[in-house]
Amino acid sequence: MDGVTEWVFAIVDRLGAAGIGLLIFLENVVPPVPSEVILPLGGFRAQVGVMNPVAVWGAATVGAVAGALVLYALGAWLGYERVHRLAGHRWFLLSSQKDLDRGRVLFDRHGSVIVLVGRCIPLVRSLVSIPAGISGMPLMRFTFLSALGSAVWNALFVGLGWFLGDRWEVIEQYMGPISTGVLVVAVLAVGWLVVRRLRGRDPVTGA
To answer: Domain total for the chain?
Structure first.
């Protein structure tokens, strides 16, 4: 993390609150960029008077929503019908068409809660935008929910950085294992989907 922290420091020192927004945008598009480093640093820099805390929070929220919209657009471009057709091919290992149908029903019923809560979970906060786009969630609703969830998440970590001051880095020590745990669960879930898909194939036709 030292290299990542130095990189974050360099961007924030050069661009100020706008750098926080840029980094959070990247964190939403490229999940390994850690918001638990970026946001507390912004809070700490605001505490010592280098940046305005409201500007840090606002820039972070704008960056988060912009990043979410990029992935939402990707999901909307793919579209449910296209992904459904892909799932019908035997080489598509991540999901079957039945799984997609069940997932769409779940998202149609509880999509708003999934997006809102997902914005406050590491890794999920980025990836939840894609199924929202695929399922056709209305853009205004998605934007509002993403902004609300991101605003809460950002306020929490900027506030912690402000409160902890020069000890802001301890936040990453606690959040790092949580983020790793979420990543491990995601990898295991993908692995389980692939294995189940392979086991469900016809041993003669491979379909």
So the answer is: 1
